[in-house]
Each structure stands twice: as structure tokens, then as C-alpha cells.
Amino acid sequence: MARKNDKIIITCAVTGGVHTPTMSDALPITPDEIATQSIDAAEAGAAILHLHARDPETGKPTPDPAVFMQFLPRIKQATDAVVNITTGGGLGMTVQERLAAPLKAEPELCSLNMGSMNFALHPLAGKYKEWKHSWEKPYLEGTDDFIFRNTFRDIAYILQHLGEGCGTRFEHECYDIGHLYNLAHFVDKGLVKPPFLVQSIFGILGGIGADVENVAFMKQTADRLFGDDYVWSVLAAGRFQMPFITQAALLGGHVRVGLEDSLYIGKGKLAGSNAEQVAKIRTILEELGHGIATPAEAREMLALKGGDRVAF
Amino acid sequence: MARKNDKIIITCAVTGGVHTPTMSDALPITPDEIATQSIDAAEAGAAILHLHARDPETGKPTPDPAVFMQFLPRIKQATDAVVNITTGGGLGMTVQERLAAPLKAEPELCSLNMGSMNFALHPLAGKYKEWKHSWEKPYLEGTDDFIFRNTFRDIAYILQHLGEGCGTRFEHECYDIGHLYNLAHFVDKGLVKPPFLVQSIFGILGGIGADVENVAFMKQTADRLFGDDYVWSVLAAGRFQMPFITQAALLGGHVRVGLEDSLYIGKGKLAGSNAEQVAKIRTILEELGHGIATPAEAREMLALKGGDRVAF
Amino acid sequence: MARKNDKIIITCAVTGGVHTPTMSDALPITPDEIATQSIDAAEAGAAILHLHARDPETGKPTPDPAVFMQFLPRIKQATDAVVNITTGGGLGMTVQERLAAPLKAEPELCSLNMGSMNFALHPLAGKYKEWKHSWEKPYLEGTDDFIFRNTFRDIAYILQHLGEGCGTRFEHECYDIGHLYNLAHFVDKGLVKPPFLVQSIFGILGGIGADVENVAFMKQTADRLFGDDYVWSVLAAGRFQMPFITQAALLGGHVRVGLEDSLYIGKGKLAGSNAEQVAKIRTILEELGHGIATPAEAREMLALKGGDRVAF
Amino acid sequence: MARKNDKIIITCAVTGGVHTPTMSDALPITPDEIATQSIDAAEAGAAILHLHARDPETGKPTPDPAVFMQFLPRIKQATDAVVNITTGGGLGMTVQERLAAPLKAEPELCSLNMGSMNFALHPLAGKYKEWKHSWEKPYLEGTDDFIFRNTFRDIAYILQHLGEGCGTRFEHECYDIGHLYNLAHFVDKGLVKPPFLVQSIFGILGGIGADVENVAFMKQTADRLFGDDYVWSVLAAGRFQMPFITQAALLGGHVRVGLEDSLYIGKGKLAGSNAEQVAKIRTILEELGHGIATPAEAREMLALKGGDRVAF
Ligand SMILES: [Zn+2]
Ligand SMILES: [Zn+2]
Ligand SMILES: [Zn+2]
Ligand SMILES: [Zn+2]
Prior knowledge:
The structure is a homotetramer. Chain A has an eight-stranded parallel barrel with strand order 2-3-6-7-10-11-12-13, surrounded by eight helices. In chain A, strands 1-16 form a two-stranded parallel ribbon. Chain A has a two-stranded antiparallel sheet with strand order 4-5. Chain A is built from eleven helices and 16 strands. The first copy, chain A, has helices at residues 31-44, 65-78, 95-105, 122-125, 136-141, 152-166, 177-188, 212-226, 241-250, 274-287, 295-302; strands at residues 7-8, 10-13, 48-51, 53-54, 61-62, 82-85, 109-113, 117-118, 147-148, 169-174, 196-202, 230-236, 254-257, 264-266, 269-270, 291-292. The first copy, chain A, has one domain (7-302): Alpha-Beta Barrel (TIM Barrel). The relative contact order of chain A is 0.20. Chain A is 39% helix and 19% strand. Chain A is an alpha/beta fold. In chain A, helix 1 (31-44) runs parallel beside helix 10 and helix 7 (177-188) packs parallel to helix 8 (212-226). The termini of chain A are far apart. Chains in contact: A-B, A-C, B-D, C-D. The A-B interface holds A 115-118, 120, 122, 144-147, 149-154, 156, 175-178, 180-182, 184-185, 205-209, 211, 213-214, 217, 220-221, 224-225 and B 115-118, 120, 122, 144-147, 149-154, 156, 175-178, 180-182, 184-185, 205-209, 211, 213-214, 217, 220-221, 224-225. One zinc ion (ZN) is lined by residues 13, 16, 50, 52, 86, 88, 111, 260 of chain A.
């Protein structure tokens, strides 16, 4: 069984690389916006902040470490939250590009995608008539031919260079049942050590879909493969966000919110900020009798190296 | 619920592109061997023959239509079995290469892989000391960096050119739960029409693993997504072959055997031929009270165009 | 699949026959208390009120129709909520006793327990040192030898005399998976007609236990047996109440609260009233984006005869 | 997870108390018939023989120890199989009657039913026009009002007097998910100690039904409650016998056959003997690669006291 805790870790994924500026004015773009929304999310109750960077002019996802370095120190200074940097980056980046910022920043935690897959956003392209930037529509449309690359060799490389090399631990992103088996392969080889964080993701076209039944099965499979060696969290795309993470909490898991995962706060209603989503899930969790983990408690559950041992 | 039939369709995957000549002397390589084993498998009870081609000299998987044409007509002449040609080919082939033979042969049925994924055979490379051919070891070892490419655009292309273009129907190969959702995407768009054949695959590193619990969940998910619009079959890799397909039959599904999927007939015992595996599952199914579908019955269940309407 | 509705029906089970006066001062005992708490629960959002009667002096469950008639008309007058009367009564009553009040009142809805089972409360007896009434401790202690009797003949009798005879429909209480099969038996015989209400119950010693995994399996089984002929609701005993009914809502079900099922409002904190529990689940459901069904909407979903066609 | 063994224990339930003489000429009635069929079943591969007695004249189930004593010593003398005596008896016997023979014989193993339930055979009564004996039809018809009584107090009594008193261990018969929780209650109280045998039963009207999905869920629940403290076996009623026990074997369980559970050997074909069913499942299990446990191996897996330490 996944390690159970009385307290639930809220991760907030502040901007990501999936949504584009046209989709919501609340999506943070500039380093300043990313820092401000991150800090607000932490104050609302997020123990972990999962971060991507965007080109401040166009809002396009960027792997540039210099941009990351414009918001990472500010966030570190203003909050105690765990900083978690993407290794997935944005569509079309090479693995080397995706690793540039994490290897430079040496954060406590990074996302690590546990398999290659189609990652298709092209149905979104038809939902908007006018676009703020010219890159947005082709970025989305092209995903009908896009493969999110994470081969076994890539994953081993990241585990070795970022994990063993920098003392970074991972949010192992599992978009399907097979990704759990991929993770088990690395656990068997000794490259991943407990307690490790499994982030299960529902509702991306190309991965496992957003039917509630899938959440329990994902956990059952992880229980079978990992016993109590893992800590489990869930995120879901778009309108599935709140019900799916509530489902996870009922099953003993942790939760992830944020505008990377969903731009909404209710049916047809855009969220005004990341903090708004943190506050909403916090209310639900507290009504259900759960406590909310502090950054210190999250660090202990995940055996992180400490917020003062990073390179930013 | 998947369409249920009193009779079970046995598919035999005669040689595939995964195993290499070193692994078993029984693996058919030449057109003559492929034809002979196919015909024997049909006589033993296989209603469908799933076929790849290999270079007659080296045994390496080949997409060359000329090689296919050396065994397809012989099989057609000698048996009434449904001929099913791969569109997956072998590791490293482009999609265009993979389609060359099917577009030429216009068979009743082709495999169609329902998503991109890591497809890793590298742990096999360490199991053999001496190799019959020089290509075998690097072919296997390199798969730690291999992605089996099947983007949404690729799949749509195959559905249009081979499906609509040639009247070919598909064995939709689903290596994970997400692949069912990918299939549902094409069903929703009207590119796949009932009754369609879902082949669930267990035990390939990169896809869903070989735990028996996964079989029932795969079916539950397909039932939820497809109701009675689909016909369900199962295959499993290696030593999981017989128990997993027996599991499928207990749940109302059809079965696939063959040396593409497993080289064994029992614990540590290599199968002497494809027909031997067909005979074994036939015994189990008959003891459990099932009948075995003839090619004509399989054609009707799958709404195939007929064995006389192919281009070989 | 269970019939889905945008709106969720909240049932409130106001006093029941399981808890005893010692356990909570908030447990309504007298007709006046039962009426008052029922009306408050309805105003807080309960569309259905599930009712037992108690001896006004001792608080012991009573089947006496005269006692029921002291609160039923008041509730009818003050609210539009659906009145649902128990046919389970209290421990040790005969089936004829259990039916006296319902046959007299001819309500729109009655509970109907779908099988015989051990119904054990004896572990509760050890939790209290002093008792308000002398009947309480032996009432609980004796349940280690108690069978809650609901044979096939009993159920058929109730379906005929109360169902066909009075136009009453049923909350089919299912304490285990087998009870769904018992219900399917009566559906097959035409004695139960859609849309019927299945109330799944978790956490009574003798029935299915309170593990969250059981909720989804109960629904899967009901989906398999009943398709969309049924409306699904969940209740859970004690501290499992809120998480289990939230789980039900995530799976498309309706919910039941009330002091019959749990005396608590939070960890170790007794609820002050039934209405308090109604308000709490209402908050959670609304945060998750659900609407709350009115009595009129509940009547339509359940095809009830109407609040004006009862005999009180 | 249930304790896994390479070898599978076949239990044979030779005559039971459910079927009546009219239903099959092969049903053993007299002590001589019961002894002969038991010995043959053991020779065919059954490691455990589960036994009821019947009135030699009428074939009606009897609790009379004197009748048991006419076949128990013969079986003990002729085979090494584990003798397992019912504590369920036949419909309508009191718990004291049901215990008479086991307390006298002090066998290594006895069945123990883990809860009260409706146990309905009345639909069978309509399938036969002429009856061999006058008791048969009313015996079956009356079950629409029959409760199979096994209260918590009854179970505790049996565990103490037969279990602790005689060194007998138990085949814990679980007809529904709740029965596993009842068993967990006794495990928690220390009255049942590992390794204990859980026999899951499917297809009795009143208990969990015969849908294959239920088998895996029964095991998942037992895994959750008991970890590796238990040994798991399955039986299923009537035509579900062979597929359900094959299902159990695929999930790592043991199997029970015998004319108590099913009178058939194939679709519409009555079995000629118990041994015929043992042989059939043995073939299937061996084709699937399983070994068959000897009585000595079964004794070790179940920690039995030994065949020489009984009172017959
Ligand atoms: Zn991200
Ligand atoms: Zn193939
Ligand atoms: Zn009640
Ligand atoms: Zn028995």
C-alpha cells in the first residue's frame, strides 16, 4: 500500500507547457507572474511548486536556464515550499534542452516522465478563433504527430545525472499503467529508491483517460508493484481536476492542482489564479477531515535534501 | 460488453519481428518455413494467421513486399484461414516501410498499433552468449532507446489508406489502457466502425505488465468505452502466454498464440512449432467447454471482406 | 450504468434503530424531536427523510404505528420532502411488526433489506460505561447472536403487499454484493421495476466492510446486473460516512446521511443534529460542482407516486 | 497476497447436502458409495475430501455421527487424503446437530461457514417432474424462507470447541465479501490463526453471484485483509464450477470440485463420479503448467495436525 499520511501534500503546477496564453489571462507568463503566483499558491497551502519557464514576450515554453533563474531565487526567498522543476519542458524540446535548467538549479525535486507516448493537444486547436501569438495554433495542431520522448535510456540518464549527480529526487509522472511497470523496472535495477513519489496523470490524449475507475486501478497496480515504498499523488487534466484529486485523497493519496493541469475553477469558469485552485481543494480536503502538509512535512515524507541545498 | 460468441477465435502469430533466430530453431524464417508453419497452425485450429516477413538469409525482419509475396499465395491456396499482415513490421522501420506490403496485398485484416511507446527488448540481449547472426544482439540492445512510433497522424493515415482504401479491417493492438482511449478517439471520429477487433497485449516492457489483474481491467475499460461494438482478444508475451489467454477466454474473449508472442510450450521448454501452441490452447478451451471458431465464423464475427477479395 | 443526474439526492436517516440514547444527546427520540430534526434536515437540503420511530420514554425502537402517526403528518405538513419509512425496524422485531406502520401509512418510499445477515453491534457495547436506559446494553450485546431476517419469502411478501398493494416504492438496502444478486432475482421475476433505488451500505459488521475499494466494486456489479435501470445511493457507518458518500458522488451516485448512520460530524466530534450532516455533505458536493436535487426532482428520478397520495 | 504455491490443492466435496438423489444417479448416498467415490477421488488427485453424510435409505442429509463412522474409517484406511467434515450439515439442522459428528471424529479439517445468509434452492424445485423420495421437493421448495444460520456467537463456539478443543482447523467458507470481514473480525480477536484456508463460493442464490469478475475481487479483498496469512481456494455452483476454479488457479488459488458443488462434467452432461471432475480439472491445471499437491503437501500448507491424530 502507498505510504499513508494523515496530512495531504498539495502540489501546485503553476504554468506548465501545455496551455497557451490565449486560453486564459490568468496563466502566468513572465518571471514576475510566475514568482507571484507561486508565492501566493504556497501561502494558500501548496507544499510543492512545480515549475516550467516561458518566454516573457511570447509565452512560449522555454528551456532557457536564464529565464528560470529570474524566478527561482525569488520563490526560494519568499516561501519555504519545495521547488520542483520540470524535465518534460515543452513540446518539441530535446532531452538535453529539457535538462539544462534542472542540471543548473539542482532542485530538491524534478518531474520525470516514465515513458514515451503520444501527447496530443490538437483537438484544443479548434476551440479558439483568435490567438494572442502566432506560435500557439501550430504548436497545438502539430501534436497529432508528436511523441513525448522518454526512452529507457533517457530515463536512466536523468536518474544518473540529475538524481545521483545532483541529489535531486523525482515526481515520477505516470500517464498510464505501463509507466508504473517502467518505474518498477528502474526500482528493480536499484536506480530508484524508496520513498519515491508517483504522480498519476489522467485525461491526456495519448495516456490513460479520465474515468474515475482508472484512479483506483492505478493505485492498486502501484500497491502491487511497490508495496509501501512509494508516496502517491494524482493530477487530472481540465474539468477532471477537482473530482479526480478528491478521489485520490479518498484512496489515501496526495493531490496536484495548478494552471498547468486545468485553467478552470468550476464548470465553464476560468480560475483567476493558481492560489484559487489550491484554496478550493484545501476546503474540500478539510471538510473531509484531512490536514494539509507543510513543506517541512512534505520534505520528510519524500526524503528530500532540503531547500538550502539547491543551486539557486 | 464485448461481443460474446460461443466459439473462440484462435489467432496464430507465426514469426513476428521480436524474436531472433538464435532464440529458437523452430522460429520460421524462410518463406517456405513461414508458409508451412502457417498451414499447420491453421489445420490445428487457428482461424487467423498474423504474418511478418523475414530476410531468408539472415532472419532479420523485412518489410519487402516481394518476400511477403513468396508465402502469402501459398497460404491462401492451402488454407481458408484469414490472413492478417503486420503494419508494425520490425524495430526501426519507418511507417512507410511498414505499410508497403499491406498496401500491396490488401489483406482482409492487418494489425494496427494504437499508440507510440517504448518497446524494450534489451534485457533479452543478456540471455544469450552466442548469436547465429551479427544483427541480432545490436537489434535487441538498441531497444533501450527505441520508440515504437504510432502517432495519431500515423494511425489516421493507415485507417484511411489501408482501411478505407483497401477494405482492410484491423486487429487494433492495445499495449496499455491509454491505447483503448486512443482507439475510442478514432471511433468517435467515425474512422473505426464496429465490429472492431481489440487485441490486448500484456508483458512487453514499455506497455502494461503481465499481472493477471490487468486482463480483467483491460476488458472492463473496453466494455465501458465500446459497449458491444468490439470483439476482444488477448495475447501475452513469453511464459505468460497460456495463462493469460486462458484468462481472456474465461472473461469472454478470443486468444492469440504463436512464436511471435512466445517461443515456449511449457516451463523452460521451447515449442517445436506454432501448431503445437495452437493445439495446446485448443485442448484447454475444449476442456472448459468452448468451441473453436472456423475461419468462416471468424470472418462473420469481424465483418471481413472475404478471403477471395485480396491482392495476392 | 446507474442513471446519472446532474443533481444529487441527499437522503437523511433521522434516527434509525441502531444507535441508542446514551450514545448522543442529539439523537432524536420523541415524535417532536424526530419531526423537528426532519424538518430542519429537509430545509438544509435533504430531499428524502428516512424514518424509524422510538418509544418516547425509553428511546427504544418501536414498530407502533401510533407513534409514527405522531410525527409523519407534521413532517408532511411542514416540508415537501419524500417520506421514507423503514421496514427493517429494530433488532428483534418480527417481519409483521416491521410492516405495521408502513402498511398503515402507505408512504411513497420504504426501505427494503435485500437479504438475511448477521447484524452485529456487540463491539459497541463495550464503549460506554454508563447507560441512560436499562435496555440499551443487552440490546447491543445480544447482537452477537442476532440475524437480521429478510428471506426471499419475506422480501416477496413486502414487494407484493406494500409495493403492489400500496404503490410504495423501495430503497433497496444492499449490505453486500450478494444482496445485489438477490435484487436481480426479483427484477428477473418482474417484482421490481425500473427505475429502482439501490442503497449500498458499508461498514456494518456482518455486511461488506468499509474499504473505499468496495464502493466502486459495488457500483460495477450493479451496473453489470441492472444497466441503467437503477438509481444508486450510498451510506456508510460511523466515521466512514462522509468519505464514502463523497466517493459515491464521484462515481455518479446519490448520498445518505443522518444520525441513523453516524453520530459524528468530524473526527471524534458528535454532530449536533441531522441538519448539520446534511449541510456538510452539501458543501462538499457543491465545491465539487454538483447541484442538490429538490424533493420534486427526487420524485421524478425515482418515479414516486407523489407526496399527496399517502395515508397520513 | 494469498500464500502462493507451485502446487495446487484439489479438494473434492463428495456428496454435500444441497443436491438430492433425483438429480443424479451418480450422487453417492450410502456409506459404501461415499467411501468408494472418496477413495477414487483421492486416487485421481484430490488431496482433501470434504464430507457430509446421508440417510442410506432416503438420501436425505443426516447429522448422525453413527453414519459418518461407517465411512470415515474406511476412507482413512484406504487413502492418505485429508478428511474434512462439514459443520454446515443440511438445511434445517441446528448448530448442535451440525457439530455432533465433527466433535466426535475430531478431524484435521472442517468447513466453517462465515456468516448467516439466505441459502435458496427453491428455483431448482421446478426443474424436476418426478422425485425419487418424498422429502426432496419440500426440502428444496422451503428454502425460499430458509436462513443458513451462522451467527458470530455460533462461529465463536465452533472455533473454541472444535478448533481449540479438538485441534481441528477450518475451511472458512465465504459466500460473500462480508464473510471475509467476519473472518477478519475473528482473526483480529486471535481466534483464527494463520495459515488459514479461505474457501470462496460463487453462485449460491443468497450469496455472491457467479460472474467471473467477482473472483478477482474476492481475492483482492482477502489480500487486503489477510496479507499472506491465508491460503485461498475457490468453488462454484453448477455449470460455473470448471471456469471459476480455473480462474482461481490463474490468480494463484486452489480449487474445489465434487458433486456437492456441481453434478455436471460438461454442458448438459452429468458427471459419472466425483473422480471424473477431479481428473478434468487436473488436466486443465497440468496443461497450464501447475503441479498437483499431495495430501502431505496440503497438510504442510495448511498446518494440519496429521491424519493419525483424529478420532476415527
Ligand atoms: Zn510540468
Ligand atoms: Zn506482429
Ligand atoms: Zn433505517
Ligand atoms: Zn459441504
